[in-house]
Write a structure and sequence with these properties.
The protein is mainly beta and about 290 residues long. Helix content is about 0%, strand content about 45%. It has a four-stranded antiparallel sheet with strand order 4-5-6-7, with no helix packed on it. A four-stranded antiparallel sheet has the order 8-9-10-11, with no helix packed on it. It has a four-stranded antiparallel sheet with strand order 12-13-14-15, with no helix packed on it. Strand 5 and strand 6 form a beta hairpin.
Length: about 290
């Protein structure tokens, strides 16, 4: 297991092979340059196309002087810094959208641009730009069922979260816009991102630091059954922070130790637990012990 830290040095911590053995995690400085890019807001693992045991880890976040992402192919022991500065239009704005399909293909998004890799994340190229569509930031990303899906906000209707999807067969052709409506964009917390959880074509969209979520079905360039669920009646004012699923149970973690769950594909929600650690500590991240995407 790997996690990122709120730090400009030793940005990643790595567990032992048995995460439950009580051994301390090893903190790794993945950026050894004199001026580092700081916080990594997204970290992800997938199998490589060669099906090596270690697979591929990648982390990305702030885009400071280096304008880079970080990659490991040896179980997060050693990391390579790979520059993005050569991609046309790349800026210093943070990246919070990253996903892989488990077959060697990876995608990330910055501003209104989609970057794509077909070589296990060794390099990325500019695959698509949403020119003239008022994109201001791609805030989240996921892969499911031969489909890539992104969340984003616009310069117009900037307080909302919108959705697009595409097929793995053509990452330059995207669906018409979905989402918006009552689905707000992420709140004022420090992560500034949206979690998209996906399983067999169903997606759950959770803008961070809000109390409304969305769900929909995606397939290629089709997004259907989009609905917004206001869970504020059961959160007692606690904002949402992250989400996960094992394919059967969908969960959302929140402030003050709150945990919500759904057993009907993210349609209806109930309180699963409160004050898990105590009534003041927030739950920031959650994951199931099932390898997705599927």
């Amino acid at each position: 297991y790997c996690m990122t830290n709120d730090s400009k040095s030793k940005q990643v911590s790595v567990s032992s092979a048995n995460v439950a053995d009580g051994q301390p995690w090893t903190s790794v400085n993945i950026d050894n340059s004199a001026t580092d890019d700081g916080d990594q807001f997204v970290i992800a693992w997938t199998e490589s196309s060669a099906r090596t045991k270690a697979g591929v880890w990648m982390a990305v976040g702030e885009q400071g002087d280096n304008k880079a992402y970080y990659r490991s192919i040896d179980g997060a022991v050693n990391w390579s810094e790979i520059l993005l500065s050569g991609i046309t239009g790349h800026t210093g704005n943070r990246i919070t959208a990253l996903a892989g399909d488990g077959y060697g293909n990876w995608m990330m998004g910055q501003d209104e641009r989609i970057y794509y890799s077909t070589n296990n994340g060794t390099s990325f190229t500019l695959a698509h730009t949403f020119t003239g569509e008022n994109f201001s930031k791609i805030s989240g990303m996921a892969y499911t069922g031969d489909t890539w899906v992104i969340s984003y906000e616009r310069t117009t209707d900037s307080g909302k979260t919108f959705l697009r999807s595409c097929s793995t067969a053509d990452v330059t052709t995207w669906s018409s816009e979905a989402g918006g409506g009552a689905l707000e964009n992420y709140g004022t917390g420090d992560s500034e991102r949206t979690t998209i959880v996906a399983y067999q074509g169903r997606i759950l969209v959770v803008p961070h630091d809000r109390q409304k979520i969305g769900y929909a079905d995606v397939s290629g360039t089709s997004i259907s059954n989009f609905n917004v669920v206001d869970v504020s009646s059961i959160t007692s004012g606690d904002n949402l922070r992250d989400a996960s699923t094992d394919g059967n149970t969908w969960v959302i973690c929140a402030q003050d130790g709150l945990l919500l769950k759904s057993t009907d594909d993210a349609v209806n929600w109930s309180v699963a637990a409160t004050a898990i650690r105590n009534s003041t500590d927030d739950i920031r991240c959650i994951a199931a012990n099932v390898h997705l995407p599927q």
